[in-house]
Each structure stands twice: as C-alpha cells, then as structure tokens.
Amino acid sequence: MRKQEGFSLIELLIVVAIILIIAAIAIPNLLKSKMAANESSAVGSVRTINTAEITYSVSCPASGYSATLAALNTGGGCVAGVGIIDPSLSAGNKSGYTMAEVGANPIAGGNTTYTVTATPQTVGTTGQRMFCSDQTGVIRYTLAGVGCTVASPAL
C-alpha cells in the first residue's frame, strides 16, 4: 500500500470554511476603521480650512474671507493668498469626503463670514457624519451625514 501525500478534500474544505468565517468577522471591522479614518481626515481638513481662512483674511484684508475653496489655493485675485492650501484639498475631494466652502456677507467688498462643509461621498461607506464650521472655528457634526448647520452639536 502506498502512502498518500497531500491533503484530502475534506481537510481543504475545512480550511476554506475557517478562512471564510474569519473574513466574515474581519471585513465589517475593516470597513468601520476605514470610515473612522475618513472622518478623522475630514475633521483635519475642516480645521486646515479654518486656519487657511484666517491666514487669507489677514493676508488679503480687502477681500476678507475667501469666496470659494479654490481661492485658498489660487488666491482669488489676491496675490498674497496664493497657495495657502494644497491643490488636492482645494479641489474639494479628500478621503471619501466632499469639501465645500462659501464666503458670505460682503461688506465693503470683503466677505465677513464663511461656511465650510465636509460631506461623506457615500453615507455609511466612506463616512457616517457630516462636518461643518464657520468663522467661529467651532467644528460641528450631524450623525445622519447631511444637514450640518451652526446649530448642530460641536465636537
């Protein structure tokens, strides 16, 4: 009688079943950790934009706060305001979130307020919470991924 080498079909099926069970347990945790990382990145980006707005308003006093997110990179007509944030952030998409910024309430040609938002591109996949801030610098959030306002809870 010859000695059989290798694994039997039953042994291989058991190993595959164990791997599938481990994957079923690990994948949801991986997705949750990715969402948490995206949310942390979004909060950091909102904080960066808040700081950039202060820098822009000091560098370009005639303009006040920038009118758009892109103006924090291009200068928006103010030479001193060029390159305050990097082009990837000024494009508005970063780590599964869409960033937007709007300057408002122009007085004597300059914006006196602004609002910045970070919205998950796919709620429940790229992030769960929406973040927003304004000239006060307080970062706020909503758990539904939409509808963040200055009345929302603060971080």
Question: What's a concise summary of this model?
Answer:
With 155 residues, the chain is an alpha+beta fold. It has three helices and five strands; from the N terminus they run H-H-H-E-E-E-E-E.
3D structure, described in words:
- The chain is an alpha+beta fold and 155 residues long.
- The chain has one domain (9-142).
- Helices cover 38% and strands 21% of the residues.
- The protein has a five-stranded antiparallel beta sheet.
- A hairpin with a 5-residue loop joins β4 and β5.
- The protein is elongated.
- The chain starts with 8 loop residues before the first helix and ends in a 13-residue tail after the last strand.
- The mean pLDDT is 91.
Layout of SSEs?
Elements: H1 9-59, H2 71-74, H3 87-90, E1 93-94, E2 97-107, E3 110-120, E4 130-134, E5 140-142
Antiparallel strand pairs: 1-2, 2-3, 3-4, 4-5
Structural class: alpha+beta
Overall pLDDT confidence:
91
Give the count of helical stretches.
Answer: 3
The side-by-side strand order for the widest beta sheet comes to 1-2-3-4-5
Radius of gyration: 24 Å
Shape: elongated
Proportion of beta-strand residues: 15-25%
| Distance from first to last alpha carbon | 73 Å
How many distinct beta strands?
Answer: 5
Domain unit count:
1
Secondary-structure element order, N to C: HHHEEEEE
Kindly state the percentage of residues in helix.
Answer: 25-40%
Low-pLDDT regions: none
Main β-sheet description: 5 strands, antiparallel
Instruction: Classify the oligomer.
Output: single chain
